[in-house]
Amino acid sequence: MKKPDYHILVCNSFRIAGDAQGACNKKGATNLLQYLTEEAADRGLDVAVSCTACLNVCSQGPVIVVHPNNYWYGGVESEAVIDEILDALEEGELCEKYSIAD
Question: CATH number, domain at 87?
């Protein structure tokens, strides 16, 4: 198996009991999964998108993490935000506007 160039993790606020009850889920993170996957493919980016358990930065949600870059983004509440993040990724840059990590 060839590993993808990027692995994007989308917080969906799952807890140990299995229930999605945190901020990211309540703010519509699951609704962004399909758009993120399709938009990355349309741009020719080699990306795997995964839904995760709680990433413990609920106040910043919805949160996504791009690996291997270790870019953490918060406030990813719309397709427009995803577009900005993917634009920066195509340029090999951090999208500072939504970055939540030093």
Answer: 3.40.30.10
Our count of domains for the chain comes to 1
CA–CA gap between residue 36 and residue 70 (Å, rounded): 17
Domain that holds residue 60: 6-95
- Position of tokens 């349309």? 42
Q: Is 101 part of a structural domain of the chain?
A: no
Q: Which residues contact 94 (CB under 8 A, 6 or more apart)?
A: 69, 71, 88
Q: What is the pLDDT along the chain (102 residues), one digit of tens a residue?
A: 789 999 999 998 876 665 656 788 888 888 899 999 999 999 999 999 999 988 989 899 999 999 999 999 999 999 999 999 999 999 999 999 999 997
With beta carbons less than 8 A apart as the criterion, state whether 50 and 12 touch.
no
Is 52 part of any domain?
yes
How much is the pTM? 0.90
Scan for tokens 């935000």, then name that residue: 81
The residues that bridge with 3 in the sheet, in sequence order, are: none
